[in-house]
UniProtKB/TrEMBL annotation:
It comes from the Bacteria. One of its GO terms (molecular function) is metal ion binding. InterPro entries: Rieske_2Fe-2S, Rieske_2Fe-2S_sf. It comes from Blastococcus saxobsidens. This is 3-phenylpropionate/trans-cinnamate dioxygenase ferredoxin subunit. Residues 4-103 form the Rieske domain. Pfam families: Rieske.
């Protein structure tokens, strides 16, 4: 695993998200109910940033919503929880070390890890 620091924990609003632009990918760092997640910042249906949407619970799952058409994506797995999206987005392992949020975008994107505060 190749974790790299992407932001400070205080940069990510509670129950919100922060767009982080890395060399070859845009990542949504999401903080929700004491957990920190990282996923591809691109709706698989509409190709718009997920960080423009709300972070909420949908059918019991922590999600981020695409503002354009309302699809929600499970923060833990990247799977869409409702239509119109049918394809998942990549998720990435996260570690929080003190005030630093570290993300590994080089690992298998289908094996998410959330980091607690």
């Amino acid at each position: 695993m190749a974790f790299e620091r992407v932001c400070a924990l205080s940069d990510v609003p509670e129950n919100g998200s922060l767009r982080v632009e890395l060399a070859d990918i845009d990542v949504a760092v999401v903080r929700f109910e004491g957990q920190v997640y990282a996923l591809e910042d691109r709706c698989s249906h509409a190709d718009v940033p997920l960080t423009d949407g709300d972070v909420e619970t949908f059918d019991g799952a922590p999600t981020i919503e695409c503002f354009l058409h309302g699809s929600c994506f499970d923060l833990r797995t990247g799977e869409p929880t409702n239509l119109p999206a049918t394809e998942p987005v990549d998720v990435y392992p996260v570690r929080v070390e003190g005030e630093d949020v570290l993300v590994d975008t080089e690992s298998d994107a289908r094996l998410p890890l959330a980091a607690g505060e």
